Amino acid sequence: MNPATNVQDLVKSYYGKRLRGSEDLQTDVSCSLKCGPSSKSACDAMALVHPEVSSRYFGCGLVIPESLGGCHVLDLGSGSGRDCFILSKLVGPLGRVTGVDMTDELIQISRKYVPYHQEKFGYKETNTDFVQGYIEKLGEAGIRYNSYDLIVSNCVICLCGDKMAVFEEAHRVLKEGGEMYFSDMYASEPVDEELKKDARLWGEGLAGALYWKDLIRLVKSVGFSTPYLVTASHINIQTPELLRQTGNVRYASGTYRFFKLPAVRNEGRDLVTYKGTVSDHLHELHFDSVHTFEKDKPVEVDGELAMVLKASRFASHFIIEPAERGEAPLKDEPQQCCHLNPFLLADTLGSSIQQCSKVQKATLCGNKTEEASKRPVLEG
Fold this sequence. Notes:
Blueprint: H1 3-18, H2 40-46, H3 51-55, E1 72-76, H4 82-91, E2 96-101, H5 104-112, H6 114-121, E3 128-132, E4 148-154, H7 163-173, E5 174-187, H8 199-203, E6 210-211, H9 212-222, E7 228-235, H10 240-246, E8 251-259, E9 269-274, E10 284-286, E11 292-294, E12 299-302, H11 303-311, E13 318-322, E14 330-331, H12 342-349, H13 370-373
Parallel strand pairs: 1-2, 1-4, 2-3, 4-5, 5-6, 12-14
Antiparallel strand pairs: 5-8, 7-8, 9-12, 9-13, 10-11
Helix pairs in contact: 2-4
């Protein structure tokens, strides 16, 4: 049997039949609490999501980037549809959100609540649809190539046996300038092949978690830009048997973003000035763990980041011009050694994300929810 196909069958059974709710996960890794910045608009949208949809959430971060109005968004492994419904509110009636998932039971739940959220958001027509298929084979699922502004995914790629195929398909379906923005689980070292034979470890994401350095290699080999690490938190496994099985391997959740850029690259350095025009980010725009752009303050950045801002949906929000010698603007030199390593970034953030705990009642937006109060501890 094809190993990737076998993994798909294991994961479909695990999430479709074995897990009835996010509290059923055994490794304490699903985290819907605040592990990074969240906007007021995202918080307001999340509050409108149907409780049954939220109860079947199995993600490990928040995949809601900035400047979404009118975007066409694809969610890889959309599950019950929670992130899709949040995004459908944020892209507005002129945008479109498509979720892809292979699990019968979760697709049924997500489709069931499309009319509910259309009415809740006050849309004349729905802007959300769900497609059953494999994220390694988006073309076969009917997803058009070169048609999406943004791809998101939330703790799903760690459940896939063929990660190269996932990133290749993602690159194909994005428009030029499009972004992939996703949260996932990462390992501190390559995961031993013996662990990959365990069905439960696959279901919990531990067997399939990428070594974080392999992510950088994979996405660049496909043709994406260098990844940018947005936020990260440690994953503490508290089940003794799973701790014994995983041995010295440590795990972290990390949110990365990278872009499909034009073939012609900028090798120089440019000055970029944020205009303060992104909704909910009027004074500064937090782009990743290194770059926070303050309104009206020019920053000298490398050619690749300048191209990202120029070619993507962020273009209208920045003034971009060549850097001149002799000027002394602010520079984008990393202030932390952990700008791509989720484990080092999680160490650096430390107590600043202590609310990323499944037993605490503060959600991503600081509200109290029954869902949050049921969850076991994940310390960050």
